[in-house]
Amino acid sequence: MTPLHPAFDRSRPPLCGTPKDVLFPDYFEHALSNGLRVLVYEQPGFPLATMQLVARGGASRDGDVPGLAAITSELLIKGTRRRSSHDIAEEIESRGGSIWSGAGWDSCVVGIGILSRHIPHAFDVLADTVRNPAFAEEEIERLKEQRLADILQDKSNPTVLAWHRFCGAVYGEHPYGRPQDGTEASLAVIDIERLRASHAERFSPSQCFLLVVGDASPAQIVALAEEHFGDWSVPTAEDAGSMPIPPLSGRQVHVVDRPTAVQSSIVVGHPGIARNSEDYIPVSLMNTLFGGYFGSRLNLNLREARGYTYGAHSRFDARMQQGPFAAGAEVRMEVTDLAIEEVLTEMRRMREEVIPEDELAKVQSYLTGSFPLQIETPSQVAQRIVTIELYGLSKTYYNHFNSTVLSLRPEDIQRVAVQYLNPDDAVIVAAGRGKQLRNTLERFGRVQVFDADGQVIPNISPIAQDV
To answer: DSSP label at 321?
Structure first.
């Protein structure tokens, strides 16, 4: 047998090289005369395409009727003046495609994934759903009944109850404080007139952009866009602007009473960061280290070291305005207060201690190694382009993602931790047995107890302490 070259030591894994930046695709842009922007990223060689009509303004514009954007968007593919819900699904699915619609906090969307040879027909269906929704009474009632059933089911889910209470406590009357999918009260007032007004407000050429990613040329897409959207003319509704986010001062401690619960669902947090902030990437790295992946400090503490939970996590839900920072877990009832204390301790530790170089390097390797896997498919690329367009980021934003992550030093992470983690000005929520939790959580501040409907329970008595 020929001996191995002495330079190759097979007993050790090879060292990883320094991750390089990934070239995010440059995409074509064109504006129709009515203001509709057309974006195309051509990926020839694989006969698929993803197309999306995105409207700016999602649930954050619902005002006093939460759920309006979500229901408006979902109903777009439930029938038009020319097609029934069944017709829409059949025309796309029979050609090997799929169609969907929905709303987030900052946008509404109708999307189609299709074989590229069927793009012309998909354009016809897409334009019909966006421009000519029927808002049929039977479809409205069916969707409202489904939402009501979901709301009733959520009232028995401590995790959902804790999250809704947390958002309400953090944001108050701001739209972020209301459930994105609506409430029993808001569903009762949503009717065809409100839906038509919601549609007209959100879906107009100057408020929308059309994105196609896949095996399609810019010339083909522009021609189809002119054919199906060129004569689209809808007056642009006046933007009412954004409601300011109320500041938090001190701690608020809320309990959602679930007398039969066997464990507690806890959430700790406060307003976080806007998506277009220059600090978004360092905050993302800081959060990954804090509670954003399995090897995070929060998970290693609450799960591995103390055995309080099967998993602890945190996230910054960045939106047009400051979306929530939230850390949470499902924990045994008897350790609820101890788990909350550890979350607060880890927040203070992130602020007060400089992060070791090796811990930072581990998270940097995790983020830079996983990033290329997030822009492989047409739908993944499309989602990144939507983010760029919605939040006004540079087209080259993702070209420098890896190098930006690798350039961050421990002092950069501590700086954003001090700015964006505030354990002393936070909302603490626990959903579980109200009497027991009220007794143990008072050390964090005055405790308010709520029922599953979000109403204050004024006279719930704490369990007597053993003397």
So the answer is: S
Q: How confident is the model at residue 2 (pLDDT cuts 50, 70, 90)?
A: low
How buried is residue 316: exposed, middle or buried, by Cβ count under 10 Å (0-12/13-18/19+)?
Answer: buried
Question: In angstroms, rounded to a whole number, what is the distance separating the alpha carbons of residues 385 and 162?
Answer: 33
The fraction of the chain above a pLDDT of 90, given in percent, is 86
Ramachandran sector of residue 410 (left: φ over 0; alpha: ψ -120 to 50; beta: rest): alpha
Look at the block and give the residue holding tokens 């001090």: 418
Give the predicted TM-score (pTM) of the model: 0.91
Mean pLDDT value across residues 327-335: 96
* Phi, psi of 115, deg, nearest 5: -65, 140
What is the mean predicted confidence (pLDDT) over 445-456? 94
Burial group, residue 245, by CB count within 10 angstroms (0-12, 13-18, 19+): middle
Answer yes or no: is pLDDT of 257 > 80.
yes
Estimate the share of the chain in helix, then strand, then coil, as percent rounded to the nearest 5: 45, 20, 35
Give the integer Cα–Cα distance in Å for 376 and 48: 14
Q: How do strand 252-257 and strand 447-450 relate by DSSP bridges?
A: parallel
Q: Which residues of 370-404 are buried (b: 16+ CB within 10 A; e: fewer)?
A: ebeeebebbeebbbbbbbbbbbebeeebbbebbeb
- Pairing, β 427-432 against β 252-257: parallel
**Could you tell me which residues are beta bridge partners of residue 48?**
115
Closest-CA residue to 275 (of 124, 199, 127, 389): 389
Burial class (CB in 10 A: 0-12, 13-18, 19+), 26: exposed
- Beta strand 263-271 with 324-332 is antiparallel
